Amino acid sequence: MEGTARARAVRPLVARRTPRSRSRLVSRCSLGSKERQMKDANFPLDMEGRTFHLGSRKGEVSNRILSVGDAARAQLLSQFLKPFPNGDPVFNMVSSRGFSVTTGVVGDSDTTVSIVTTLMGLPNMDFVVREARAVVDGPMAVVRLGTCGALQPGTLGKILVPAEGCVLVHRNPDAFIDSEGEGLSPYLISRPVLPHPTLCDNLVSELQNTLPAGLDGLRCGINCTTDSFYSSQGRTSNAFDDRNENLVQQVMEEIPNAVSFEMETFQLLHLASCSKGTIAAAACAIGLAERANNEFMSPKQLVEMEEAAGKAAIDALVGFDLSKTEL
Ligand code: R1P
């Protein structure tokens, strides 16, 4: 049911507690893929209707999804989800591939949100979006809250919002193949994909409300999703032939309003734009490290920002009218 999809409570098998957040969550690990009989090689589902990698089935994932990379971030933000009005506990499961889904009710509303760990990289975002799409009926809204490299001076610790779009920066293997690659660019930059404008506006205004520094705590621009944390983000190494010494400079020259390097947003926005109007998507990321001066946020600051931005992202999802996914 739209926006109020009820997750079926599962029998708790493993109690999880982390020092960061003592939660009332319970989790269950789904069976490993080798122990599950799958059917349909085109889109594998097990006999319970669970997807191959995310491990979810209908009724467990909300139409409104907050995608985070890190399991500890998901655990921290689960504080904003409450049990269901009928007394069913917040739903939590971890798939054999390490994806987690936590579904509960937000505030005093009957609106549900699922927090899904997307792990890292383009293929994992692809698994999450496609397999969530397969088990959710009706329109969906997805917001990613990640961390990123901050590209503009003075943006360490700010929330960087790709309101102007997101490009893919990826390695071009052909350029590295013997003499055949001569003259080819070792890295390619795609054209930008855009977030859903209303969902992105919701996200910006909620961030403005929840961030300690308000508008000063965020910066909008273009995000660069990369296919490697290392070579395609211009981190140099003597161990590999990467030809990336000038990559950051090249990116900044071609995209002067580039604000961030991370590894998933492009796939989310690209798939949403190819979802035939059924998925609205937006994203933001915390500037964890500033590339130009090599500075990192402290772990304490990071948790504070994760909490503030996570609350904003959940409220942006709740406030989004799911009948408006189509542009
Ligand atoms: C790399 O350290 C990871 O952190 C960033 C990148 O996109 C990549 O996934 O995001 P998350 O903190 O959401 O994982």
UniProtKB/TrEMBL annotation:
<dbReference type="GO" id="GO:0004850">
    <property type="term" value="F:uridine phosphorylase activity"/>
</dbReference>
<protein>
    <submittedName>
        <fullName>Nucleoside phosphorylase</fullName>
    </submittedName>
</protein>
<dbReference type="InterPro" id="IPR035994">
    <property type="entry name" value="Nucleoside_phosphorylase_sf"/>
</dbReference>
<dbReference type="Pfam" id="PF01048">
    <property type="entry name" value="PNP_UDP_1"/>
</dbReference>
<dbReference type="GO" id="GO:0006218">
    <property type="term" value="P:uridine catabolic process"/>
</dbReference>
<feature type="domain" description="Nucleoside phosphorylase">
    <location>
        <begin position="65"/>
        <end position="306"/>
    </location>
</feature>
<dbReference type="GO" id="GO:0005829">
    <property type="term" value="C:cytosol"/>
</dbReference>
<dbReference type="InterPro" id="IPR000845">
    <property type="entry name" value="Nucleoside_phosphorylase_d"/>
</dbReference>
